[in-house]
Write a structure and sequence with these properties.
The chain has 302 residues and is an alpha/beta fold. The protein is built from 14 helices and 11 strands. Helix 3 links the parallel strand 2 and strand 3. The N and C termini lie far apart (49 Å).
Amino acid sequence: MSALDLAARTFVGARALYRRARTSTLATVLRMRLARLETAQWRWLTEPLTPGEKCCLFVSYSPDGQLPQRAVDHARIWQQGGYEVLFIIALDDFAVQPQVPFGHAIARENTGFDFAAWASPIGELDWSATRFLATVNDSVYASTRLAEEIARAEKHPADMVGFTDSHDYRWHLQSYAWHFKRAAIAHPAFAQFWARPTGDRAHAIFVFETQLAQLLRGHGLQVAALYPTAARLDPTFDDWLDLARKGLPYVKRRALALHYDAWAPHLAELGFDAKLIERDRPAPETGAKPGLLRQAARRAMR
């Protein structure tokens, strides 16, 4: 077989694999789910935010219009650190009028993922006066140590700071809380990243979840985790107790559901509201740790 024939067969085989991937159930579900991002409704619940020096975009799911107490307590720590808090409240029923405890708020259809909710105000508002921007969600409980860790993030030399990193799929900063400085906010790649996906969007979940840190690093910006880890898939499941003892101010709800009996005795001493967590924690069956593709499928179909 000639080199030309081999190349032709390789091309044909690769094209067939690509077509099968595009028509797989997972790819179809993801495309349908992500296609809805462009038509998601959202509205201001308060006076629109004029971003100042420090801002926190806080995404929370509120099926009945009531923000979970863990979200209110968490966001208040950012507010006490001098951040203007903009709640982005995901609603199953867009007609519901949520109560806003403080700060500013947007109501948004519960469509897409957290990155789609963050993308709405990032794309719409003027961030030219903002030195520090945090994107945060309610998938975690925050401890009393968060205030000092926010100060650490502000002083850290990196332009994008995450609290933990992960090697699931590829190295990335975990997206439950990201902190950006002026150099990152003002960089054209930042705005392009948060622009609405277009065309074939089945890959967008992987782009948003795992590639922002790599993208900014590729443009010469510094990215770092406050609590970097060795080559493990998800340290917030496997090594959380060790990280928390070192100062990590967060615990993931799903990880806690899986490890509650082992971790519960340590929550109060590590600065977490143990009573709130006992009332609020998800059922154990929701704590199983899926791989990336299973996680993508679960999010896409919820």
